[in-house]
Amino acid sequence: MSLLNAARTVARTRAAPRLNAAALSVAARGVHTLPALDYPHDALEPHISGQIMKLHHEGHHKAYVTGLNTAEEAYAKASTPKAKINLLPALKFNGGGHINHTLFWKNLAPVSQGGGDLSQGPLKDALEADFGSVDAFKKKMNTVTAAIQGSGWGWLGYNPSTKKLEVVTTANQDPLLSHVPIIGIDIWEHAFYLQYHNVKAKYLDAIWNVINFKEAERRYIEAAKQ
Ligand SMILES: [Fe+2]
């Protein structure tokens, strides 16, 4: 081995532990990032405006990502149980906001990419079995979601105990834990107010035109396997 190669080998050997330590530090902090959408912000028009989508994605969701990273970093540095407990509300709110919105963007699709189209298959069969018809399911989901007091989410969830699809809700940014989420509808005012003002029912009617049922069916099949 030449002197130059020997020096390079020593340098690599010495540098490796420092790089690993840096990578571990980043992993420990749990750096989350804003996911890109699979479609342009205005691709869901006229059902959800581009202005709403841009603000919702780049403003609101980004704020949850930033808040989650800040809370996780503070939690990692917190040295007492009291200090850690004090951070739990921020972790739940921002973590839930990140989880819910990441799921929400995937459960929407432009009409040109199949949004609103529920083909014959396992999900349609299950909806008809558990709700009587697809229309009855949509009506129940809209009624239950519209009745949420304040901000929250309406969900079509798979109940692993009963093996059935059920409509449930969560408050604020609480993620759905009791069921496997199949379709989520954000009923925070930031999701609809700029376009539909205080008329939640119009937003809830319109959103079915851009629900990505293919993604919902993929989630349903995955959930039903377990
Ligand atoms: Fe939202």
Folded structure, characterized:
- This protein has a domain at 112-225: Iron/manganese superoxide dismutase, C-terminal domain (minor pseudopilin epsh fold, 3-Layer(bab) Sandwich).
- It is mainly alpha-helical and 226 residues long.
- It is built from 9 helices and 3 strands, in the order H-H-H-H-H-H-E-E-E-H-H-H.
- A hairpin with a 4-residue loop joins strand 1 and strand 2.
- Mean pLDDT is 90; it is low at 1-27.
- Helix 2 packs antiparallel against helix 4 (88-106).
- Mn(2+) binds at residues 56, 101, 186, 190.
- GO terms for molecular function: manganese ion binding; superoxide dismutase activity.
- It catalyses: 2 superoxide + 2 H(+) = H2O2 + O2.
- Keywords: Antioxidant, Manganese, Metal-binding, Oxidoreductase.
Task: Provide the fold topology.
Blueprint: H1 3-29, H2 50-77, H3 81-86, H4 88-106, H5 122-131, H6 134-146, E1 152-159, E2 164-171, E3 180-186, H7 193-196, H8 200-207, H9 213-225
Antiparallel strand pairs: 1-2, 1-3
Bound molecules: fe (ii) ion (FE2).
